[in-house]
Amino acid sequence: MPLTSKVEPLRSFLFEQGVEGTLRGLICEVADACKYIDYAIKMTELGFAGTSNVYGEEQLALDVLSDELISSRLSKCGLVVNMASEEQQNIFSAFLKEPGEYSVCFDPLDGSSLVDVNLAVGTIVSIFPGKELVRPGREQVAALFVLYGPRTTMVLGLEGRVHEFTLNPLGSYTLSQEDVKMDESGKIYSPGGDTRKYSPGHSAFIEALKNDGYKLRYSGGMVPDVNHVLMKGGGLFTYPALEGSPRGKLRLMFEANPMAFILEAAGGAASDGTKRILDVEPESVQDRCPVYLGSKKEVALAENMLKEAGSEKGAEKT
Ligand code: AFP
What we know:
Oligomer: single chain
Order of helices and strands: HHEEHEEEEEEEEEHEHEHEEH
Bound molecules: 1,6-di-O-phosphono-alpha-D-fructofuranose
Strand order of the largest sheet: 4-3-5-6-7-8-9-10
């Protein structure tokens, strides 16, 4: 990126947009923590930490390090009340001398199993006002993800708009795209999950996309895959309900909610197959959720085809 006086750093962009000071500070704290994760991905030796997370998945040293980088920073920034990390069992509180104003859910290194094969990975963050975390995603005030790819970018959803920032070699995030918008439909699809365990409705939906000429784009990392759909202006990312896993694989609070918030703000849609993801009422921070994220046409088609297949199944039984 050429150096010009027009470079817009993250902090001053947020200031100019009138973003309230505490929220502005919190977004910049998260962005700063992610610079260290970016560095750790490039410089740390790979290997397992010898521990498992709450879902029984073996933790990479990098997962643990990324978790510590975000949680220790947010614990001491004075802006946060409660936090939940995909890598930890329970909600935990920040060290506060004065009451903080926001609570944060984060997946410190999503797709970490892709680091050893040198594919892109990301950090996903969801920000709520006050101290409650187990609440529907529509109550988020901001959500963001950082994508560690050939470039490191941060995509921020805030006040019904989405902006992209790029981390430059000087260690600053500068605005690279203001007001990212999605079209009504796209031409790529990114389907997760074991196809043998798809429901008939979901299989029919994926076939319909294929037959309509949609191109397959799936890396196995939610952050690069969703970013692909978003930045190409349309298409669909899905990780559906599967036989034996009726709520799918992805976590509502750490993955589905923040991505749904960002995609809706860009003019797209996000459904669990029957309703808006942002209206799902969580029971715990560990809940999972089937995910259909993308442009409006594909998400509506998924909902319709799943509904049709469900009513056919119901009719067969009677
Ligand atoms: P990891 O963080 O365990 O690598 O999982 C990544 C992820 O949660 C999400 O980023 C992907 O979209 C999804 O899982 C991929 O799952 P499959 O490996 O089943 O395709």
